[in-house]
Amino acid sequence: MSTEPVIGAALSFAGTGNAVDDVIERARVAAAAGLGAVWLGQRFDYDAIALAALIGREIPGVTVGSSAVPIFGRHPIIVAAQAQTAQAATHGRFQLGLALGAAELTEKAFGIEFRRPALRLQEFLIATRELFATGTVDFRGEELSAQAPLPTSLPGADPVPPILVAALSPRALAVSGRYADGILPNLAAPRVLEGHIVPAVTAAAEEAGRPAPRIVAAVTALVTDDPAAGRERLFAATGFYERVPSYRRVLELGGATRAGEIGLVGSAADVRAGLHEYLDAGATELILTQTGLLGREVERATWEVAATVGR
C-alpha cells in the first residue's frame, strides 16, 4: 500500500518583533494549511534544532526538522545532545538534517579550513549514529574524534531521530547512502534527481545493506498571478547558491545557470504539476522553500496548493 508523501515547508521569520514567536505562528499557519512538516535552516542568529523543538512542543502533530545544520564548526556529541533534546521535547517528531555547508561561510565564521568535507561527513555520521544507538561513543577518525566521558542517552528521546543530509556531490551522496537515513537535495531539478541523485544515493544504500533512503527534495515555489515579479524575487534570494560548487554542478546538470530558474512560479495548476514532477522523479517527500518572498497571502496559497499534492 502506498502512502501519501509528506509535504513540508521551510520557515523563516519576518525580521520584526519576536523572531521565535513569529516562526511558531507561521508554523501554525502551515499546519492549518495542511502541511505535515516544517523545517528550519541553520543561520547565525538562531539555532535550528532548538527552534524546531519549540515549534514541535507548541504544535502537536506536526513533524519538525533542521534543514540543515552544517557540520563544520560543530561536534557530534553536541549535535546529538541537541537532537535528542528536540526528540524528547516533540515526543518523537524531530528529524536531524545535516549539511556540509559552504567554504565561503565556514572559513570566515569559524576560522577553520573547509577540507575533506566528504570524509568529515562520513566520520560525523558514524559518530552520531553510534551516540544514538548505544548512548556513548569512542570514535577516532582522521578529521574528528569523539569520546563520551559520560553516558549520552536521554530518557524520552525515542525513537532514534532520523538523520538526513543535504547532499549533492557524488561523494557526499555515496556517504549519505551508506550512513544516513536519507538526503535533503536542494535546487536539483527533477531530471537531476532522477538521472543523478536518486540512483547514486540508492546504490550506496543498497551496497551497504541499508533501507531505501528517503529523498526529501527542497523545491522553491510561489503560487502567484505575477510570475515575473516572483521570479525576480527568487533570483535575488537564491543568488548565493550560484557561488557554491556543488550547487553550480546541479544547476548545470538541470540546464540552468541561475538558481532562480529552478523554482516553480506561476498558477496553482502550474505549481501543483511541477511538484508532481519531483515526486515522479524519485522524491519521497517535499520541502517548499522561499514561499514568503511575495508576502503571507502568497505563502499561504502556495502551502494550500502543495498540501493537495499526492492526495
Tell me about this structure.
This is TIGR03564 family F420-dependent LLM class oxidoreductase. Keywords: Oxidoreductase. Residues 16-259 form the Luciferase-like domain. This protein has one domain: Alpha-Beta Barrel (TIM Barrel), CATH 3.20.20. It has an eight-stranded parallel barrel with strand order 1-2-3-5-8-9-10-12, surrounded by eight helices. A two-stranded antiparallel ribbon has the order 6-7. The chain is 45% helix and 16% strand. The mean pLDDT is 96. With 311 residues, it is an alpha/beta fold. It is built from eleven helices and twelve strands. Strand 1, helix 1 and strand 2 (37-40) form a beta-alpha-beta unit.
Q: Look up the CATH topology.
A: TIM Barrel
Name given to the CATH homologous superfamily: Luciferase-like domain
Q: Write down the domain tally.
A: 1
Main beta-sheet strand count, sense and barrel state:
8 strands, parallel, barrel
- Unreliable stretches: none
**Proportion in β-strands:** 15-25%
One letter per element, helices H and strands E, the order comes to EHEHEEHEHHEEEHEHEHHEHEH
Which CATH class? Alpha Beta
Could you tell me the radius of gyration in angstroms?
19 Å
Estimated structural class: alpha/beta
- The beta-strand count equals 12
| Gross morphology | globular
| Helical residue percent band | 40-55%
Distance between the termini: 14 Å
Task: Determine the mean pLDDT.
Answer: 96
CATH architecture descriptor name: Alpha-Beta Barrel
Major β-sheet strand ordering: 1-2-3-5-8-9-10-12
Number of helices: 11
Organism: Tsukamurella soli
Protein name: TIGR03564 family F420-dependent LLM class oxidoreductase
Domain Luciferase-like: 16-259
Pfam families: Bac_luciferase
